[in-house]
Amino acid sequence: xxxxxxxxxxxxxxxxxxxxxxxxxxxxxxxxxxxxxxxxxxxxxxxxxxxxxxxxxxxxxxxxxxxxxxxxxxxxxxxxxxxxxxxxxxxxxxxxxxxxxxxxxxxxxxxxxxxxxxxxxxxxxxxxxxxxxxxxxxxxxxxxxxxxxxxxxxxxxxxxxxxxxxxxxxxxxxxxxxxxxxxxxxxxxxxxxxxxxxxxxxxxxxxxxxxxxxxxxxxxxxxxxxxxxxxxxxxxxxxxxxxxxxxxxxxxxxxxxxxxxxxxxxxxxxxxxxxxxxxxxxxxxxxxxxxxxxxxxxxxxxxxxxxxxxxxxxxxxxxxxxxxxxxxxxxxxxxxxxxxxxxxxxxxxxxxxxxxxxxxxxxxx
Length: 365
Prior knowledge:
This protein folds into two domains: 5-10 and 263-364, Aspartate Aminotransferase, domain 1, CATH 3.90.1150.10; 16-260, Type I PLP-dependent aspartate aminotransferase-like (Major domain) (Aspartate Aminotransferase, domain 2, 3-Layer(aba) Sandwich), CATH 3.40.640. The protein starts with a strand and ends with a helix. Strand 3, helix 4 and strand 4 form a beta-alpha-beta unit. It is globular and about 65 Å long. Strands 2-10-9-8-5-3-4 form a seven-stranded mixed beta sheet, with helices on both faces. The protein has a four-stranded antiparallel beta sheet with strand order 11-12-15-14. A two-stranded parallel sheet has the order 1-13. 48% of the residues are buried. Helices cover 42% and strands 18% of the residues. By secondary structure, the chain is an alpha/beta fold.
């Protein structure tokens, strides 16, 4: 069995009981047993986002992008517009979806690794009455930056707009409270901070938004938010055959947080691991992309002078450690990303840093 440690921002290493859940005996998705597990999963997703009774949750078979496409292909009618706040690769992924579905766009485009300017956002809200939705990525994984979601939420409340947040790399890793932060709809996936597998995405949304949907306004057949909601609320089902084998691990991973480690405990563990990693990398002469607004789970660093990123990653992989190379031009500048999502604990971080130092010293010679 491979002993590779995934210090990469998804897929992640999972707890043994999550992996064993893949071996659950076969069931039909049109059965009471599935329906009971589906409802239990929905309830735990709501707890993950600290949602109250005004919210409802859904599960979509697919990656995090599938949940994002479900939302963006379903919310708009006529000339209703979207204000997109973006400052990295995954904000641009939302832009790609917006363009594909020809949603009228008001663009709040900021340089990568730059915190969005709230004054710019407010001016665009004030000047564009056709805006229905404000969209933003919570944790912009391409840089490791946490965007100012509570402040954007206050602006959305002030101007009466729907706030849609991509929480794909944030759910179970950051302090998300949809009620406190005025988040109306958000998305995520199992194979990130939650500690499940890729392919089991989920949505948490205000019931009033879901109840206002019509079949005609949804532009995608399989990823229709209307169909998903109607199937769930009327029959505790999904509209099409779901990836049943991934529902069980998703449910177990949620249970591990809700009933065992606790959400607060999970976030605290991630914070502690990120601190160890950052202190260790600083001692090794790595330069950080960000100085503040860092996430609890992704650290973007430039390797010391003379150390080639692809060569370094290959050497670390030989020793059982996987990282990401930086996105876009960052990779050309020998930036890598070290993540601590999933089943990574403090001692794992110390062990990784020892190997990291060995490889850096070898390549610097």
